[in-house]
Specification:
Blueprint: E1 9-13, E2 20-25, E3 30-39, E4 41-46, E5 49-54, E6 57-62, E7 66-71, E8 76-83, H1 84-90, H2 95-102, E9 107-110, H3 113-131, H4 137-156, H5 169-183, H6 190-197, H7 201-212, H8 216-234, H9 239-245, H10 251-262, H11 266-276
Antiparallel strand pairs: 1-8, 2-7, 3-6, 3-8, 4-5, 4-7, 6-9
Helix pairs in contact: 1-2, 3-4, 9-10
Length: 292
């Protein structure tokens, strides 16, 4: 069923003694879902694979296909379904990039507890207004949703832009980020990215260098490394399975790549992060906020 503008597609899961399941069947307007895991753990099953999201984190679930969610006992989570008009009307500046993340494969970012503490009252406020029957409850719910989307963009989207005196470069950098987000697992060449953008590899290299101080390949490798650390820290997948997921030909090539990027082989990184705990994880925590 189509959702009218102004309606908020929101579900709140308070901690319960038993696990709960939810089948997400997106409507024709649904671009994707934001899943906020404040405590506990939520798992997802899709035709393309299974996922697990440990609190505190934010997961992006595409609207295409079906997703079965398992909210484990004791978990606190919130789910927001978004249509394109939700994003375009509330966050016109970053809406295109957020939409591209939602329409890609499922992914998650680790959220620092201080940031989740800022999101929690907004999610609770949205839940409260959704249950109210007062005439202004709908407007209040929309306001809470706008604030949540702004916070989501601050956490998930890069905040470094091209100088104002570089016409056209800002859009090219945005498009490069979109392409990397969609294809970083496929081990594409920089020449392929540049071709998709309609520019030369040298031009792409110049844009990235002058804006971020890093070459395009380095940015792609950093994104790939952040995804690898997420799997190593939060999943029980083997190194071989992670290598397959990230497009490496075998576990050895993945291990060599990961060690060059972090100074540790994958198995050693996993042991260290599990030994030291959340507060002392490495510098490659899988957050999108500082990429690039």
């Amino acid at each position: 069923m189509d959702r009218a503008k102004g309606d908020v597609d929101f579900r709140r899961f308070e901690p319960a003694l038993a696990p709960r399941t939810l089948q997400l069947a997106s409507g024709p307007q649904t671009l994707g879902h934001l899943l906020f895991v404040e405590s506990g753990k939520v798992s997802g099953e899709r035709a393309t694979g299974n996922h697990a999201w440990q609190a505190p984190c934010l997961a992006f679930l595409p609207g295409s296909g079906q997703t079965k969610l398992l909210i484990e006992a004791g978990s606190n989570a919130s789910l927001i379904g978004l249509a394109r008009f939700d994003i375009e009307e509330r966050i016109p500046v970053n809406g295109e990039l957020l939409g591209s993340i939602l329409s890609a494969e499922p992914r998650a970012i680790l959220v620092e507890r201080r940031h989740m503490a800022r999101l929690a009252p907004l999610l609770a406020g949205l839940a409260r207004e959704r249950d109210e029957e007062a005439g202004d409850a709908r407007a209040a719910a929309e306001a809470f949703l706008t604030l949540i989307l702004i916070e989501t963009c601050r956490l998930a989207l890069p905040d470094h832009f091209m100088p104002a005196d570089e016409p056209g470069s800002t859009n090219l950098l945005f498009r490069f980020r979109q392409l990397v987000e969609r294809h970083f697992r496929s081990q594409r060449s920089i020449a392929t990215y540049a071709d998709d953008l309609g520019i030369t590899p040298d031009r792409l290299h110049d844009i990235c260098r002058r804006t971020t101080g890093r070459a395009p390949l380095q940015l792609v490798h950093e994104r790939l490394t952040r995804e690898a650390t997420l799997h190593l820290e939060r999943s029980t997948r083997s190194v071989q399975e992670i290598a397959d997921t990230l497009g490496f030909r075998d576990a050895t090539s993945f291990s060599h790549f990961f060690k060059r990027q972090t100074g540790l082989p994958p198995a050693a990184y996993r042991r260290r992060t599990r030994f030291t705990g959340d507060e002392k994880r490495g510098t490659f925590a899988a957050t999108y906020a500082d990429w690039p």
